[in-house]
Amino acid sequence: MDFSFIQTSDHHILDSETSLFRGFSTGYALQTVLQHIARNQAGKFDFLVMTGDLVNKPTPDAYRTFERILGLQDPSANSARFAEPQPASLAGFDPFPVYFLPGNHDDRQLFYRQLYPQSAEGGLANGAFVHQGVQFIFLDMGPDVKAEAFPETIDFLERSLQKKLPSVIMVHHHLVSIGSAWLDAFIADDIERFWNAVAGQAVLGIFCGHTHITYEIEVGGIPVFGVRSTAFPFVLQDKPLTALLPPHYRLVTVRDGVLTSQIFEVEL
User: Which CATH superfamily is domain 2-265 in?
Assistant: First the structure.
């Protein structure tokens, strides 16, 4: 049990690589982050996980732009199912495996149709896979900006944890207060159902998106991580404020059952 993976989140890709969101090019930012990963982390990680809000508005053009940025194959030729990897093929770099979770900006039907056409369309995107003896659990808390601990999602989590494997949980929505009134209002009202399910289980770490902010908090002995958006980061305060800050990605290492991580900042 000795491997590493990378987390990025909240890419908010628009309908074309040149489209701007409030003057900011989310496509250029994601391209720059991926190139930094390929250039500086090649051979140091096994796969990358993108924890949701892949696009800003869920249109076919936005997903096609996202696919072009990652060099993904045509969806019609894509045999991957949800919670299976796909190769990112950046020009000039060796391909590397990428997993995708949907966020509240991702339409579930388009998400499946564009990225996982072999999976059933619609429905919550809950899935799992095992890598070097560690179970990775992908959880979906819904398409709304405010999370919901759906019975289907919690049931899937509980069944997965019954396998008694050391586990890493990946979810778009954040699960614990980070100290921002407007962002913390989006935590599920019934989030205790999640924390009751993971209590006493062999959970090595939990990785979230949604807040666009990098943080690390421990809950019941479990480290919980967020990572700054590659698009437009938010300021950690009680009212919404967007900041021009360099994007982050997180390199996570699991060695002998212990999880550690390192943040990399990418100048644009």
Answer: Metallo-dependent phosphatases (3.60.21.10)
